[in-house]
Amino acid sequence: MQLQIHSETDRLEAVVVHTPGQEVSLVNPEIKEDLLFDDIIFEEDARAEHLDMLSIFRAALPSGGQVYEILDLAAESLQQHNAKEWFVDGLISIVPEENLLPIREELGRSAEDELLRFVVQGKSPTGVHFTLPPVPNLLFTRDLGAVIGDRIILTRMAEPARKREALIMELVVKFHPLFQELQPQVIQVPEGHSIEGGDILMARPDTVLIGISQRTTFGGLMSVANQLLHGDVEHVIAVDIPKKRSSMHLDTIFTFADHTECVVFDPVINAPTEQVVLLTRAGGEESTENIDLEVMPSLKKALEELTEQSFTFIPCGGKDLTNQFREQWTDGANLFALAPGVVVGYERNTHTFREMEEYGYRRMNQFEFIEEFTQKPFDPVEQGKLTISFQGHELCRGRGGARCMTMPLRRNRSTHG
Description:
With about 425 residues, this protein is α/β, with parallel strands linked by helices. The chain has one domain: L-arginine/glycine Amidinotransferase, Chain A (5-stranded Propeller). It has 13 helices and 18 strands. The protein has helices spanning about 45-60, 70-80, 85-95, 105-110, 110-120, 165-175, 220-230, 265-270, 300-305, 320-330, 350-355, 365-375, 380-385; strands at about 10-15, 65-70, 145-150, 150-155, 185, 200-205, 205-210, 235-240, 255-260, 260-265, 275-280, 290-295, 310-315, 335-340, 340-345, 360-365, 385-390, 405-410. The strands form 5 sheets. The protein has a 5-stranded mixed beta sheet with strand order 6-7-8-11-12, sandwiched between helices. Strand 4 (about 150-155), helix 6 (about 165-175) and strand 5 (about 185) form a beta-alpha-beta unit. The radius of gyration is 21 Å and the shape is globular. It starts with 10 loop residues before the first strand and ends in a 5-residue tail after the last strand.
């Protein structure tokens, strides 16, 4: 499969997800903060809500579209030559505090599903008497990587609790047949820096946004920006955002709904203290060393100047300040585009959806959408601008919305249909 992402909103054709499993039930409230959770999640409801989201995707995908579960890809990857040995050695090295070296041989003999269950849930494989803390954040596959054009960024996690997730993603990219031709296009981040996929958004083929956030460091941004700018990307817009739990990534306060329409958390995105810097390859296409920096007055101005188009910023939560804060907290700005002008988000963010109706978006809930488009193909051009809501009362406790739970591999650039 050829990877291809040239914008946030071209029609989705392939996406990687993880439907939550028992790992979320293994989060002890006493250590939930160490595992990066504000609350505990009821697994059965969270799983049902996630499967409903995937049903929307499958109804919306064109013929041949694919939804990949990351653990299925990982299990297939472990069957490849030398993959299991590489994976076990990688696991030992990233969790030195667990002292897994004495059980290295036993882990290497474990079946693929048992080994992955050990890594994700912490449960001992057969013949191994050892446990690990669970990895409940795996459902937020967005943070594990980002496809930019025909390249993929292997992100580097800021927190130790997520290092095993990054190892799983690296396993898939390194060994799975889907990514066989991709190795020269992999972008990696040096040790000591961090960047996560929630901070990386693709505005158009030549322009990428990267947030400097609680989870993405300046060094991580500059490492990735340098590699992108000496490829096909011409501009990187760096957006410095508050280093707070509520805005841990750029996509928690800003996402694209259409090519020139964005849903934003207004108190931050339009604040006068916002810091936006435009990074451009110095000397044009022939340059291989220098990057020009230009401070921009705002993110909106930066986008409009680069694209020579007018952008519309739709306030998450509508016009009322309290509703803006409440619905940003429950991922109202973290929408995921299935096609230009067709987005998916949590049903509970009613003020956000009502505001979007004022900008021409028609609203459907998950049941209406699935019933209609399992009977006939979904044509986004014919349907026009559309919001699709799904229930996420348990999922939102994990502090991530539809964009956080998806890592697109391919979008159709040539047509909106």
